[in-house]
């Protein structure tokens, strides 16, 4: 990979780990702290052109570019006094329990994504990453699915407000990117693509192929609903059968991606069976598409991922390294300093290498498809629903 001229804005501050729903909640901020430590110990953050920037908290005016003032007030009130939780706004539920300072740290995550978005759009850097962000389930007026404010949507809106006319968003989280899709469903300037486990078996119950955009934006919502059990080979086949042809036809000016790594086989909340190697392959593919189509403009966020030690830190360290223009070889050893920290902190047994030992191979759609195969049926359903809206043949 040619890393000449690659610059990277990384949003990070220890304060971001205060996004903490409490003991027993899957969204444990340990995954964030371990990711930052692993990326640091592997030297990713010391590379030339990489800047680690502490974000500033998004103010109400910025949040209100996406969220309603009533919702912002409800979040602030619930964070000041959990007894003020407003279930009508999705607060105080099992998924989104209230905690002290909830508004402040949620707004800080938004600030990190927006700062990276503005840096990428303004070309002060080529790439931006906020792995603490990717809170894609939050709606304009409600928290949902562990997500309070939708940092991705606010980041996209910031680029639109700065003059962007075609923003592409690709979501590879195991759950449908419903909040981002809903917020921009009728905006022809934003293309949302989500690859996720079928909503027939997984939260949030949306993301069917026939969700293709509002009346003024037909074809700008693309949903690939994958069968439970789909692994690297099938997932990458689906990705390459849908994402590159749509992006090449739509010609985005900037690529935004959400990298929830809960598609991994070890993730406790879903039913896909990817490896870190398959996830790494998707990161490389998205970086290549950003370079091919968007003049290198690429903003990446984190998202879901609940295998706290074995998966999330390795996956997102690979993401950071690829965004820095210096991919880590899959067979690379995990630094002993990081493994020792995991051991002495009683977090379990750390992995020894940055790979799960998979190859990331897949068969290309153009080589033929099997109409009796459940995965190919899912791919074809998406292509049939949306490809004609872009002047593409769903069969070819």
Automatic annotation (TrEMBL):
InterPro entries linked to this entry: AcuC, HDACs, His_deacetylse_dom, His_deacetylse_dom_sf, Ureohydrolase_dom_sf
Known pathway: Ketone degradation; acetoin degradation
Keywords annotated in UniProt: Acetoin catabolism
SUPFAM superfamilies hit by this protein: Arginase/deacetylase
Any one GO MF annotation of this record: histone deacetylase activity
GO biological process: acetoin catabolic process; epigenetic regulation of gene expression
CDD domains named among the record's database cross-references: HDAC_AcuC_like (cd09994)
Entry annotated with the keyword tRNA-binding: no
Domain Histone deacetylase: 25-321
Official protein name in the record: Acetoin utilization protein AcuC
